[in-house]
Structure formats: C-alpha cells, structure tokens
C-alpha cells in the first residue's frame, strides 16, 4: 500500500518577558520563545478543492470567514511561491496557543502552516523567506506588526528589541522555571496603549514618563540577569515591572489576582505579559516542584489554562 505523503510544520508561542508598553516609546523589550505551547500543521493531498480544519473553521479554503483572513493569505502567498495555486490540499491545524492573549497565536499559525506547505512540496524554506511570508499575513491581523511575533514563534532564542533597531539574539542562561497563567479573557492591547498615550498628555504626564523610563531601565537590567543566571534578581525585576504597569493602568483585577497568587505560593517574581487588561501573566521560580505548585494555585484561583516551561533546557 502506498504511503500517504504529508507535510508537517510546527511553531511555538512567544512571551514578552520585559518591556511591555514602554517598547512603544523606544525603550527596550525582551521576548522569549515559549515551546510549552505549540502549533502543529499537517498538509495532505486531497481531491477537488483545498479544505481547512482548525479550531475556528472546517470547510473550503475559499469560504473561510474574515476572522481567518490572515491564515487564508498565508496559504495563498505560500502556494503562489511554490507555483501550486491550484493544487488541492487538506490542511489541518492544531493549536495549543489561545487567541488574543499576547502569545503570538496568529503568527504561530502562519509559521506552522508555511512550514508544513513547504515540507509537503519538499522545498527548502529559509528563515528570511518564512518571515517575509508571515509578515504579509500579520499585516492583515495587526496592521503594522513589528515582526517580533513572527520571529519569536519561529525561533528558539530570546531576543532583545528596541523599536527601529535590529533584533538582537540573547543567550538564555537561567536556572529557573517559568509558569504562565491565562485569565481566560482576551487582552485589550489597543485600548491599553491608547490609555498610556492619553496619560502622556494630561496632568499625570510627568509620572507616566518616569514609569516608562523605569520600565526601560528594568528591561536593560533584566537582560543581564537572563544571560548571567540571576534568577532571583530577574524575579524581583518582574514584580517591579508589574507594579509599574499596574500604576499605568494596563493590568486588570484578574491579572492582579493571579500575580498575587503566584507570589503567595513561592514565585520569586510575577507580572502580566503582553498588552494587558486581560490575556496572560507569568511567574518565575527556581524549581519544577515550585512551578507545579504555582500552576495549581493559579488554576484554583481562576486561571483558565496554565503552562510550565523549563528555561534551563528550553523545553
């Protein structure tokens, strides 16, 4: 019996470790790949027309709803590059990354799908070409993306990023575990960014500028701690960052509750991650046992999903 040909592509989530919101004002940020949550795409040959199967849609490619326009564009652009526009395929996408939580869901889906299509047609895919394809789809999803999500969901290295400057790969040297807790509520990045912009024009502008600058300094220090195995100091930095973000008004009661829960259960630091006002929080701890205890406490206090990431091994 002839073995069925298939193409497989994977990607991972991303986490903003430090630098949320202040990155908008030319301060540095640090993002890390988060392989504890993955996307897998599988491509097989089928008859007649291309069909899609994913969490949000099952049906013909041409009938995909506007919500999935970025994925549709990823497939269209990739097949055009491969000169296979009319080749009927069955594309199945399984994602462990919740949408609209600041974990790079749309970029991760595009990365995995592009890799699977190139794999199916046995064609080499360079990182440069992958990022170019995903950037096209991310413009549909996010308007004017920085490219960070595409890079992080396709990479195994942390990156240091300042707006308008090249991404700098970082050495991950940290004997620690990262716990991620999902509030179950979508993040409100645009609203949060707009609220800080408004603060910069009112009577609180001096304090707002001061906090933005502090966030930048903490990201710079955090880089050193990440690269030099200073987990305890990185944890303190994370907690300080959360306090500043909360003062800037971009946290939420759910995020604050989960951050406090993590700290009360042994975390050496905790903060919101991403745009805030929903989405996810992260906590740092020294060992697996503590990480699992924190994850359970988060689940008991409202976290919809939790993940544990061994930063020592990148798994």
Automatic annotation (TrEMBL):
One of its GO terms (cellular component) is cytosol. One of its GO terms (biological process) is isopentenyl diphosphate biosynthetic process, mevalonate pathway. Residues 232-303 form the GHMP kinase C-terminal domain. The keyword Transcription regulation does not apply. The keyword Nucleotide-binding applies. InterPro entries: GHMP_kinase_C_dom, GHMP_kinase_C_sf, GHMP_kinase_N_dom, Mev_gal_kin, Ribosomal_Su5_D2-typ_SF, Ribsml_uS5_D2-typ_fold_subgr. Keywords: ATP-binding, Cytoplasm, Kinase, Lipid biosynthesis, Lipid metabolism, Magnesium, Nucleotide-binding, Transferase. This is Mevalonate kinase. Its EC number is 2.7.1.36. It holds the Pfam family GHMP_kinases_N. Pathway: Isoprenoid biosynthesis; isopentenyl diphosphate biosynthesis via mevalonate pathway; isopentenyl diphosphate from (R)-mevalonate: step 1/3. Residues 73-150 form the GHMP kinase N-terminal domain. GO terms for molecular function: ATP binding; mevalonate kinase activity. It comes from the Bacteria.
């Amino acid at each position: 019996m002839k073995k069925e040909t298939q193409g497989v592509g994977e990607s991972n989530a991303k986490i903003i470790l430090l630098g949320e919101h202040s990155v908008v004002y030319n301060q540095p940020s640090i993002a890390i790949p988060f392989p504890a949550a993955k996307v897998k795409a599988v491509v097989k040959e089928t008859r007649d027309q291309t069909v899609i199967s994913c969490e949000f849609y099952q049906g013909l490619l041409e009938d995909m709803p506007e919500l999935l326009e970025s994925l549709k564009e990823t497939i269209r652009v990739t097949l055009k590059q491969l000169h296979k526009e009319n080749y009927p395929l069955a594309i199945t996408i399984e994602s462990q990354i919740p949408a609209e939580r600041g974990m790079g869901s749309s970029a991760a889906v595009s990365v995995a799908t592009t890799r699977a299509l190139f794999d199916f047609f046995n064609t080499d895919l360079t990182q440069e070409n992958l990022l170019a394809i995903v950037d096209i789809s991310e413009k549909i999803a996010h308007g004017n993306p920085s490219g960070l999500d595409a890079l992080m969901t396709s990479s195994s290295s942390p990156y240091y990023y300042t707006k308008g400057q090249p991404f700098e790969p970082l050495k991950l040297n940290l004997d620690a575990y990262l716990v991620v807790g999902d509030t179950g509520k979508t993040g409100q990045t645009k609203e949060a960014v707009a609220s800080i912009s408004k603060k910069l024009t009112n009577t609180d502008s001096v304090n707002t500028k001061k906090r933005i600058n502090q966030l930048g300094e903490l990201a710079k220090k955090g880089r050193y701690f990440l690269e030099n195995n200073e987990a305890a100091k990185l944890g303190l930095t994370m907690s300080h960052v959360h306090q500043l973000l909360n003062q800037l008004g971009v946290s939420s009661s759910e995020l604050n509750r989960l951050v406090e829960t993590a700290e009360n259960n042994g975390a050496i630091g905790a903060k919101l991650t991403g745009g805030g006002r929903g989405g996810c929080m992260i906590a740092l701890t020294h060992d697996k046992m503590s990480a699992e205890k924190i994850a359970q406490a988060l689940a008991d206090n409202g976290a919809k999903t939790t993940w544990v990431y061994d930063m020592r091994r990148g798994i």
